[in-house]
Design brief:
CATH class of the largest domain: Mainly Beta
Number of helices: 5
Oligomer: single chain
Radius of gyration: 27 Å
Order of helices and strands: HHEEEEEHEEHEH
Shape: elongated
CATH topology of the largest domain: OB fold (Dihydrolipoamide Acetyltransferase, E2P)
Helix content: 25-40%
Length: about 190
C-alpha cells in the first residue's frame, strides 16, 4: 500500500523560502568565518592613518605615507613623527661596531633628518622588532634605500617577501662596485 503525501501550494512556498534562508545563512557564515583577512587588511590600512601629519594615498598599487623624520638611529633606521621606527627595506648598513657606521649614519642624516619623506611599504609591514619596513623617497623623488647602496653606505639585503625593488637596489650595488666606494671596496 502506497502512501501519498499531499503538499499545499503555500506549504511548498514555505519550504522553498526556508531552503533559501538556510542557503543565505551558510553563504554569510562562510564569508564571515573564512575571510577574516579582509578585516585585518582594513585594520592595517587604518593603522597607517595615525596622525594629521601623515597622509595615505594609493599610488602604483602601494600605500605611500608622508612622514617627518625626527631622528636617524643608524644607516638604515630612523624615527618618524608618529613615534614609529622605520627600517629601510632591501639594504643593510654597518652596525655601531663596524667600519663605516658613522659615515653611513651621517650620510643618511644629511639626506633625511628633520625633513619630510615619502614612505612606501612592501608585502610585510613590520619586522620582528616592531619597526615599520619601508622604502623611503626624498622630496625630489630620490629613493633613499638605493642611494645608500649606490654611494657605498649600505649593501643589499634581500628578505623575502619584501623584494619589490630588488633589481633597482642590485643595480645601485653594481654601480658602487664599479666605482669602488666604501663598503663596495672592502
Amino acid at each position: 500500500m502506497k502512501r501519498t503525501i499531499t503538499i499545499n501550494r503555500w506549504e511548498f512556498d514555505l519550504i522553498n523560502l526556508a531552503m533559501a534562508l538556510i542557503a543565505l545563512i551558510i553563504v554569510f557564515s562562510l564569508i564571515f568565518f573564512l575571510i577574516p583577512s579582509l578585516k585585518d587588511n582594513i585594520k592595517d590600512i587604518n593603522a597607517e592613518k595615525t596622525s594629521d601629519n601623515t597622509s595615505v594615498s594609493q599610488n602604483s598599487n602601494a600605500i605611500q605615507q608622508e612622514a617627518l623624520i625626527i631622528q636617524v638611529i643608524d644607516g638604515d633606521t630612523f624615527q618618524i613623527n608618529t613615534g614609529d621606527y622605520v627600517r629601510l627595506i632591501g639594504i643593510n648598513a654597518p652596525e655601531r661596531t663596524e667600519r663605516y657606521y658613522d659615515d653611513s649614519k651621517l650620510f643618511l642624516e644629511s639626506l633625511i633628518n628633520n625633513k619630510s619623506v615619502l614612505l612606501e611599504g612592501d608585502l610585510d609591514n613590520r619586522d620582528n622588532y616592531g619597526r615599520l619596513l619601508k622604502y623611503a623617497y626624498s622630496s625630489d623623488g630620490l629613493m633613499i634605500n638605493s642611494e645608500l647602496v649606490r654611494r657605498g653606505y649600505a649593501v643589499p639585503m634581500e628578505i623575502s617577501p619584501n623584494l619589490k625593488y630588488r633589481e633597482k637596489i642590485s643595480n645601485a650595488y653594481q654601480q658602487c662596485i664599479n666605482e669602488k666606494l666604501r663598503l663596495c671596496n672592502i
